[in-house]
Every structure is written in structure tokens, then in C-alpha cells.
């Protein structure tokens, strides 16, 4: 069953390849020190106020979080490269 998914309003979108491999690995392993949700489009990250940010994010991700705060965004969507769907005999 396929459902459509849309990013919430006030989301800053980060295109694939704009976060380095190490940052993407930390996001994939849930170790990037952010509040994140995995979505069909990529990683949706809550942009918290600077006072609540504990730091420790990779540099690329920290820069995008700062830009999201500067532009008054609530969310940061780090898009991932879509994985091709491999048909199986069970479908």
C-alpha cells in the first residue's frame, strides 16, 4: 500500500548530497543529537530553539539547523536518495 507524504509547513529542505557521508551515517544510526523522524522522503528533524540545542551535531547539519532558525523554520528535511523498489514474487 502506497501513501503520499508531504513535509509539514515551514520546513527547510536539504537536497541529497548536501550533508556529508559521516553526517548521513549518524542520522541513519540515530546518533546525530537531534530529534528526528524517518519519513519516506528522508529524515525530518525538529528545529529546537538555540537554548534547547545540546550541540554535538556534525558541522554540515549544524549549519543547516542554524539557517533553519534564521529563516524561522520549524523543521529540517534532509532528503535521502530514493531506494529503488525491487519487485518480488510475493506481490
Characteristics of this structure?
single chain; 91 residues; alpha+beta; four-stranded mixed sheet; 4 strands
Question: How many strands, which pairing sense, and closed or not: the largest β-sheet?
Answer: 4 strands, mixed
Which class of secondary structure composition applies to the elements?
alpha+beta
| Strand line-up across the major sheet | 1-4-3-2
Distance between the termini: 11 Å
Strand content: 15-25%
List segments where confidence is low: pLDDT < 50 over at least 5 consecutive residues.
Answer: none
**How many helical stretches?**
2
Helical percentage: 10-25%
Rg to the nearest angstrom? 14 Å
SSE blueprint:
Layout: E1 11-14, H1 21-28, E2 36-38, E3 42-46, H2 59-70, E4 75-79
Descriptive notes:
The chain starts with 10 loop residues before the first strand and ends in a 12-residue tail after the last strand. The chain contains two helices and four strands, in the order E-H-E-E-H-E. By secondary structure, the chain is of the alpha+beta class. Strand 2 and strand 3 form a beta hairpin. 22% of the residues lie in helices and 19% in strands. Strands 1-4-3-2 form a four-stranded mixed β-sheet, covered by helices on one side.
What's this entry about, in short?
By secondary structure, the chain is an alpha+beta fold. Helix content is 22%, strand content 19%. The mean pLDDT is 88.
